[in-house]
Amino acid sequence: MITAALLVLLFQAPPAEAFGLTAQCDINFTVARAAEGTIFSGDLTVECETEEDVAGAEAEALRQAYFERDYDEFRAYYEGERIHAEIELAGDRTGHGIEWWGYSQPLLRIPPVFPRSAGRADVIGSCIVRYNLRGGYSRVQESACAAAGREDSFGVSARNAVRRWIFSAGRDVDCADVVLEFRFDDSEGGPPVPALPPCEATD
Q1: Chain mean position to CA 11
Q2: d(Cα 40, Cα 72) in Å, to the nearest integer?
């Protein structure tokens, strides 16, 4: 049996703890389809844990967790499914109270498709994909794979999967890395993940 992927988020953004007041929020929603064909987060509920202003944190988490995306056959596979996600918020104290915010974070991770030719050849692989987040959408930058000569097919599948992911409507993120392992149920794990060059410094 093929396991589509094991997803491990290596780096996305500085942890909210670095900013003082934080909120850990549980997000639950149903993947719903509108009449015009878009996919959206239906029956959305939020529950946050924080030391102050729970209502404010939950209002911001609710805003960030609502999404509408174009129809996609891979996203539509989850139609009707109840999805759980977690996002982290930071709170800035202002003269008008606490202002909650957070970086864009994954809400729905679409697993990559295991390349057929690799599956027939019993080849497993590991890929690392680097992407930026702009307005809640991923912009894949590059990838690197270890896959016994089938790096290209694994890389295409890994990059396409991350492009389909749905993220919260938080602040933009530069240089996020995620590891995706393609393996069989009876295998212990994929080959060592290749390294990508260091992220370029941004102002």
Answers
A1: 11
A2: 12
Residues 6 or more apart whose CB falls under 8 angstroms from that of 170 comprise: 64, 87, 101, 102, 103, 104, 105, 136
Closest CA to 2 of 118, 133, 148, 163: 118
pTM for this one?
0.87
Residues 6+ apart with CB under 8 A from 144: 127, 128, 151, 155, 193, 194, 195, 196
Which pLDDT score is estimated for 200? 80
Domains by residue range for the chain, with CATH? 2-184 (3.30.2420.10)
Secondary structure (3-state) at 162: helix
Residue 132's alpha-carbon distances to 50, 83, 104, in angstroms, are: 28, 24, 10
- Tens digits of residue pLDDT in 37-87: 899 999 999 999 999 999 999 999 999 999 999 998 889 899 999 999 999
